[in-house]
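This entry is passed on directly below:
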Amino acid sequence: MKQIVILFILFLFMGQFSISQVANNNCANAVELCPNVSEPSTNIGANITFCTGCEDDFNFCFPTNNSIWFTFTTNAIGGNVQVDFSNLVFEINPGQGLAIQATIIQATAPCSSGSYTPIGNCISNGNANFSLTATGLPANTTYYVVVDGDDSGVGITQAAECSFDVEVSGAGVSHLPPTIQVNSSNLSICKNDVVTFSVNSFNCPNIGGFNWYINSTLVAVTSDSLFSTSALSDGDIVTVETSCYTLCSEVVNVSTVPFSVYSFLVDAGPDLTISPNIATTVNGVTSAPSYSWNPNFLFSNPNSLNTIVTTDQTVTITLTATENGCTLSDDLTLTVITGLDIPNTFSPNEDGINEKWIIQGISSYPDCNVKIYTRWGQEVFFANGYSDEKAWDGTKKSGLAAEGVYFYILDLNDGSSPLIKGSLTLIR
């Protein structure tokens, strides 16, 4: 048992065992100090690495007890650097030191004490705010800052432990303020026009990817500086964001002015389900002075908003309109259902002819249901298992339905067919 206790103490002394060590207790995990950014830090719970040539095996400035490590890299110009320590708060325990020690190190071999060169001043009794300074540092060079608890003095048996803030500054590390500029092919466009954006950067080395936003909503991430979109509306603002510098990155962004997007109403109408080769009326709506339907050979008059289309197969038709130099379009899908003949008119006027809205072939779908609505969405008729006997006779709960256009939804309930939608005209 005595041997186990001795081994445990030896392991503690050799720095091979610790409780709740801070991450940068090890030089290889040195915290990167970014220029003009205060870094909250502590050496509480730190220890030393005890071996020949290891990170803590140096004999200048001060001997290490519970070291922690930081690093910084000079910029492309180099120059003077200052490392400030502030807000020191010490652990207060019997026999524990109340000062920290620190210095700047250049290492030709990272974290190998045999390659160390001390840079600038050395602080060995830091019990209040203090600074490390180094002058004329060369460009693009990495340095380390080691901080340790002092254990010198009468009656001191335990090295100091301290929480503090550390910040690096100076011409040798400061970044020139990075900026970016966004350019677009046109700020005044038509609805659905494709707009291409590009980015120019200034003082922004090692630029990262680009995040693109429309009205603060992320819409794309690109690896290069180009982005295209056709999804802009009037007043939209496009913003691009990127990061500069690999180490101590800085995020920059820039926005366009609001876009002027010209648009106007173009509505081909709702999708319809029809029987093959049955003339169907489509009712397009637009405010534009020039318009046409395509494919034009399907229409009785492709240049009329309200026209008749005939087809024997499912097809998508398009209403295209032009106004003020802008061209917009809207699609309508005609789904052709074979085996059914759905009339688009009937005349319940008691002359004995076409008195009900009879759907030829509906008997093949005994589970179907039909709903009929006014143009304002009021339901006037509903039937489960639609048949000749249950066919609509032009009445509603309150009496006779008025002449005019109605809309229907036919659900065949066969597990595969889509809802059939269309319009019918009641004639008295």
Summary: Confidence is low (pLDDT under 50) at residues 1-19.
